[in-house]
Design goal:
415 residues, A middle domain of Talin 1, 18 helices, 0% strand
Length: 415
């Protein structure tokens, strides 16, 4: 694969004209921004910042996925309410870390033809990582339907190849891989999955036998595993296959995330080398175009009206993580100023302050649990919070257009 990438790299350059066009040996379209002025702004650092922020975000996504894998291993070694809760927390952290890297998938880069043929392009890989909405009954049992899903189809081997073949087999919602499959396996269709679903068969048999002994029943109720036995939903079967599926889908998720990270490695990564070979104006144009697509198509058209993390009831956190990723690119950190900081700090300080204030307001929409609500109410996203966050994102879209006008950039028409 490395030889293919190196060979294709000499033929393909960063394509600013639009996403998913056929590769062509054309130069990037020049951006209209004028970088004359204060030489201290060092506009060439825009390329470096784009590569740095993309690589760092993907490194963090992989590290969080490794933490998720470790938490799930602990859950399967010791299935109880505490390890299940830890796995759920790790899933939320991991998915948020991935979404903070999502911006860079909107860069108008054309993948090599060979990757597209092999199903390895960014958008093909994204489908294996983050397909939603999904049909939970395609994965595992639903209340009242204990024999549904891949888990309960004993004719289907749980190999990596088979799970990839089953992904989108009959319908886009027939999803067998990715974050939301793991989410369903950890929460269930109603957010109430019991950790007993992951007890090994021999453990269930042993616990059931011991609990039938009246002399040991009181002692058994004081242990986490026997407490699970009391709460096991009737009709839940195939725990061993469920365990195997959860392990397999988590391992494949990490493989797919690592594939994206490799493409942003500074010296060898295909995406990193394309950005490095572009002019600062072209890199800025690409990054601002990606920001526009993130706001308009991913947030306003898709995430905010939808329910992307429905099983865990944390969809609002998805939108916040996407905004955090955009904040890193636009405003950066103390050690790595963002793309807008050197361009606006001297000539447009008020506009820069608007960005800082508006992004801070949007990211302040974090959902807070209310102690006086029922579990069912907590599982339902707050309509008021969603409306408030949508309004903040619309303000960011307006601000993005104003900034593009100042910098004489053309944003893509995503409507």
């Amino acid at each position: 694969m490395k030889h293919v990438v190196i060979w294709l790299y000499s033929l393909l350059l960063l394509c600013i004209a639009g996403c998913d066009q056929a590769p062509a040996p054309a130069q990037p379209l020049p951006a209209a921004v004028d970088f004359t002025g204060d030489p201290a702004t060092h506009p060439e650092k825009i390329n470096d910042h784009l590569i740095h922020s993309a690589l760092d975000s993907h490194i963090q996504a992989c590290a969080s996925a490794e933490a998720l894998q470790n938490a799930i291993t602990t859950l399967l070694d010791h299935p109880n309410p505490f390890t299940l809760a830890a796995s759920r927390d790790a899933w939320r952290d991991s998915y948020s870390a991935f979404l903070r890297a999502r911006l860079y998938g909107f860069l108008p880069v054309t993948d090599p033809v060979e990757w597209q043929r092999q199903g390895l392009s960014y958008h093909q890989t994204l489908s294996l990582i983050d397909s939603w909405p999904i049909e939970g009954g395609y994965i595992d049992y639903l209340p009242g339907y204990p024999f549904t899903g891949i888990v309960n189809d004993l004719t289907l081997p749980l190999s990596s190849d088979t799970l990839q073949q089953q992904h989108g087999f009959a319908d886009p919602a027939s999803v067998s891989l990715g974050f939301h499959v793991i989410e369903f396996l950890l929460w269930g269709s109603d957010g109430q999955r019991s950790a007993s679903d992951y007890l090994q068969t021999e453990t269930i048999t042993a616990v059931a036998g011991s609990s039938s002994n009246k002399n040991t029943a009181t002692h058994a109720d004081n242990t986490a595993d026997n407490h699970l036995n009391k709460d096991t939903p009737p009709g839940v079967i195939n725990q061993d296959r469920r365990r195997q599926y959860l392990q397999r889908v988590t391992a494949q998720l990490l493989d797919h995330l690592r594939r994206l990270q490799r493409r942003w490695e500074r010296e060898t990564g295909y995406y990193a080398r394309l950005v490095a070979s572009s002019t600062p104006a072209a890199a800025l144009q690409a990054g601002m175009s990606a920001s526009a697509r993130l706001i308009r198509t991913e947030l306003l058209e898709k995430r905010l009206p939808g329910n992307s993390s429905e099983f865990s009831a944390t969809s609002q956190q998805d939108s916040l993580a996407l905004l955090q990723g955009m904040q890193l690119w636009l405003l950066g950190s103390e050690s790595h100023p963002g793309a807008l900081v050197p361009l606006l700090s001297t000539t447009q300080p008020d506009l820069l302050r608007q960005w800082q204030t508006t992004l801070a307001q949007a990211l302040n929409q974090a959902p807070a649990p209310e102690s006086n609500t029922t579990a069912e109410q907590q599982h339902t996203p707050s309509a008021t919070a969603a409306i408030t966050l949508t309004a903040s994102v619309q303000q960011l879209d307006t601000l993005l257009q104003q900034t593009a006008s100042v910098l004489r950039l053309t944003l893509p028409d995503t409507h």
